[in-house]
Amino acid sequence: MDAHPIPQNVTSFQFKLIGDMTLKQFAYLAVGSATAYFLFVFLAHDYPLIAWPLIAISALLGIAFAFLPIGSRPLDHWTKAFLKAVYSPTKRVWGKNGKTFKEDPLFGSRLVMYLAGATQINQQNQSTSGSERQIKPDKPAVLFSETPILRHSDTPAPLPTPEELGKTVDLARQAQQLQMKIIQTERTLSQIKTQAQNPTPIPVDYSQQVNKVLTDLQNLVGQASKVKQQIQTVQEPQPKTPVETSQAVAREKVKVVVANKPQKATLALTTFPNVINGIVKDKQGNYLEGVVTVIYDKEGLPVRALKTNKLGQFTGSTPLLNGTYTLELEKDGFTFDVLQIELTGQVLSPLAITAK
Questions:
Q1: For residues 151 and 172, what is the distance between their CA atoms, to the nearest angstrom?
Q2: Is residue 101 part of a domain?
């Protein structure tokens, strides 16, 4: 059996100039030798101390780029990889709509927030004495309520303006920063409590530190309350002017009466029992042509497929057996409810079906 040749990548073939020396290796060697020769001609006579090291470096670099592989890779490959690693960006920033999100106020303090949460869990698990309860900080202040404020009114609330949205975002950012400061203050208070629990040869009075931290915590909670009030003030709807109120009252006094369309007479489409038929209309009462009606039995198998005419009418040609059937209507741009009908051997009047 003849052996098949192994496919090779012919695009990576390099022309051999002399022996195993490729054209690229010869170019590197020629450039290094030419540089060393020019340095020898122009600098060796006047500046021998500078010229001879440069001549040696140029010649060695030409030889290295031509014949010195590292890890089965030529030196030029490693040089390009090094330059790409140095000058390629190592940090990427998310940008959207011309705005970059470089700074996240919670990202820089994630360790503090994690330690604060862990400290609170440890405090809940440990039993504390009466003296410890005096130093134990209160629960973190809640700046915002999780339950949304519901306003019951006859008219929908107006949408906020861009200025109100911007002010709300600024206040929310301030509240977030205050919340972070409160967490850091509580962590400091927890550290003081831990230090007070550890016995020391010389008693240390922590009352001043505790009072200072508690004062700072109280100030932060007060600032957070002010910010919360400002946010509630911004979110409250502005009172209407007398002109807007009068216009609203005038609109309420006007009553629009829509004239009823004359009802079209509905004719019987069939005189046979157990024949499903009907008339399909849109929301305006216009007949819909080309509506496909598929009738399924109680086991979900299709037993009839009907299509409406120009008057929106559809009817079957043969009666069905007694039982429960489901109707599904389809037409591009319209949606219909799924109907269910029970056949009992009687003549059915046309079904009035209206699209959603």
A1: 21
A2: no
